[in-house]
Every structure is written in structure tokens, then in C-alpha cells.
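User: Can you write out an input/output pair for a complex, sequences first and structure second?

Assistant: Here is one pair. Inputs:
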Amino acid sequence: MSTSKHRKRRYHHGDLRVALLRTAGKILEKERLEALTLRTLARRTGVSHAAPYRHFRDRESLLAALAAEGFAMLGKAQREAAAAAGLRGMGEAYVRFALEQPQRFRLMFGGEVPIGRHPALREVATRAFDALSGALAAHVPEARGARDQSIAAWALVHGLAQLLLEGRVDASARGDRSEAQFTSDVLATVRFAAGSASRAPVGAAPSA
Amino acid sequence: MSTSKHRKRRYHHGDLRVALLRTAGKILEKERLEALTLRTLARRTGVSHAAPYRHFRDRESLLAALAAEGFAMLGKAQREAAAAAGLRGMGEAYVRFALEQPQRFRLMFGGEVPIGRHPALREVATRAFDALSGALAAHVPEARGARDQSIAAWALVHGLAQLLLEGRVDASARGDRSEAQFTSDVLATVRFAAGSASRAPVGAAPSA
DNA sequence: GTCCAATGTTGACAGAAGAAACTTAATCCT
DNA sequence: AGGATTAAGTTTCTTCTGTCAACATTGGAC
């Protein structure tokens, strides 16, 4: 009759932590980050306003956990895209993620969660970057400069995502192209060249 | 004896609006954006907590005004840098600005001020971008693709700034290079090529 | 000089973060 | 099984913030 197992509104929720993260995720999908307040979160999870404090030291820690989730999602999306569409796919997946989950992305990179205070977050964030970095390094094996290149690639993709989701790119620049096509075109504009030697189109798949 | 002109604490401040923006600017230089609350702002400006409402509809409008200021600053820095050091200089100036005024930059791009609700802000922001876009377009006169290139250039520089100021670039990647040198190196990694024709190193000065 | 509109002030109120003290229910220990 | 321990939730309280409404002051227009 009820949801699935008859959960009768017990005193102990059972798994509040993940429940909180779940409803928080829903809020992030439908509302602005500002709407994600501890109290409304508690309310919508059907629990008292102080309950979340048993699972998160404070609001910032909650946000950090959500950001960490975000990096995991992003990493996964990138790995899948890389498998299917190579380096180009990774870049596009990055932008797609930002546009599909704008508030989550904001949370991850908006500076509201000072990364220095949350080592676990830094950890997972770094790992997500390593995927991109590794893929590019494998693709452009230059020893010197490869590191810089991968950072440039990340910056490019990241910046594009940010500008798009903030609505900074004026409509006339995109023309009638789809967002995906536009992304692809913009990225295709760029080549990398360590020192001044080899160049690799950012849009090229590893072996095509 | 007192500050300079004997300002006697008159009932009417005289020029509260700019005074508010000034102290807000100071706060942004020394503290986190979160510390910029209407009440502390009023307090530090030596005025009652409701006074700011005579000059800004709400907190968001205040932030919008500060962001607009920021775009003006950024635009100026870029123009100056362009005059002195060409396209490379503009990119570097962009990153430098972000690193010198991290909280201001966050305010400008962090999504806390929904640009759609503040047409004046969008206006000045667009103008700042046009400087970059125009300079690049003049430099790479390709008709088709020039627009995309300038967006890629902006994205690159913007993303790099963002990643650096969030501390996302791990120290080992930078090595012992100064931040400016590192920025320059990373940017130098990239070339642009519209369609698949001409390429222009992003770091090159207009005529060298 | 008078009057008034702009600018400031005081004093509310609601909503949020967080701490403290208390309750309930799992689970561990014999 | 049966009590002690303790993790997980609840209530209550304090402080801070944004915002509004009602009142005060004053610089200028006339």
C-alpha cells in the first residue's frame, strides 16, 4: 500500500544519511543551490530540523558530501564517454554534465565549499581530474609539457562549461547549433602543441 | 584631529551608496564572500542596518552592483594589458585578476547573482567579453569559426583562472614556476585553428 | 521661511544555523 | 531474557540575517 516496505514512521529512520543525500540531490536538480537549506532538507525528508547534525557536522559538510558525490558522477560520466568516444567524448561529457546538473556543478566548483577544509573532497576531486589528465597524457606522450597540456585541456573544457551554464555565451554566437554541436565545434577550434612540436586535435579520438 | 574633514556623524551620510560599495569592496578583498552580509556592511559603514535598502532593493542587487564593478575592473585590466602585451597579456591579465581578487571573481562568475535578473550586469559583462573577443577576432580574421575561437579562448582563460583560484591545480603540476609563468606556459600550450586552416599561438603578441 | 521627498533610524518579524538537554530504541554483555 | 550503553532523533533556545513598516531628519525647491 505504502511506498514499498511498510515504513511506519519509526523513531529511528534507519538510513537517514543516504536519505538526506537523496532528497538533497533532488533539490539540486529542481531548485537553486540557495534553496538547499538544512531545515527544508530535514522537512522534506520528514525528520526534525536537528536530525541532520547526527550525520553532518554542519551545513558545509553536507555540501562537501554532495560535491563529492558530484565528482564521482562526473568521473563516471567521463570514463564512460572516454570508452565510447575517446578524448573528444570526455570533453563533451564534461560540458554535458555541467549543463544537465548546473546546481551540482556550481556546488562542486563555486567556491562555496572551501576545498582546503575537506580532504576527502579534495581526494575525489583530484581523482576525477586524473582521468582526464591521464587520457590526454596517454594521447600526447610528450614528457615535458604534457602536464601543462592536460591542465589547459581541463581549463578549456571547464571554462566552456562554466560560461555556458552561466548563460554568458550570447545566443547569436551559438547560432542554430545544438548545445552539443556547439560544444564540439568550439573544442575543435583548439589544438595542443607542447613546446612547439607535436599537435593533437582535442577532438580526435585516440585512434581515428 | 579626526579622519580628515571633520565629519560629524550627520544624519544624512551624503554619499552612502558609494560608501557602501567601498566598504563592501574592502570586505571582498580581505574576507570570504559569505562574510559580506548586509548587516555587517551597514555596521562597518557606520550606518543603521536598514539604511542600505535606500540604495539597493535587496542583497542580490547589492551583489549585482559589486559584480558590475568587477567587470569594469576586469575590462580595464584587460585593455591595459592588451596595450602593453597583446593577446597573451590579455589572457594573463584575466588570470591575474582572478587570483588577485578571488572573492570578487567568485561573485562575478559563481552564479550567486542570476545574471538574467540584472540586465545592467549582463550589459557590462558582455562588454568585458567583447574586448577579448574583438582582440582575438582582429588577430585571427577568419570569418567562419572566429566566433568559436574567441569563445574557446575565453573559456580557456576563464577555466584556468577558476581552477587556479579554487586550488584545484595540484602543486606538483606547477613545479617551481611562478604563478604568472605557469599561466603563461599553460596558455602557450594551445593553438587555435579555425576549420583546419590558420593557427595562431594564443601567447603571441599581435606583431611578433 | 515652508513644505516635501529623499535618506536614515528603530523596531518589529520570520527563517536559518547551530548548541544543549532530553527521549527512544538498537545492540551489546552477561 | 534483561538491564546498561549508546547511537540516532526531538525539542527548545540563542543568535544572526534579510526584509518590512512606521517614524525621524534634513537638504532643497518654491
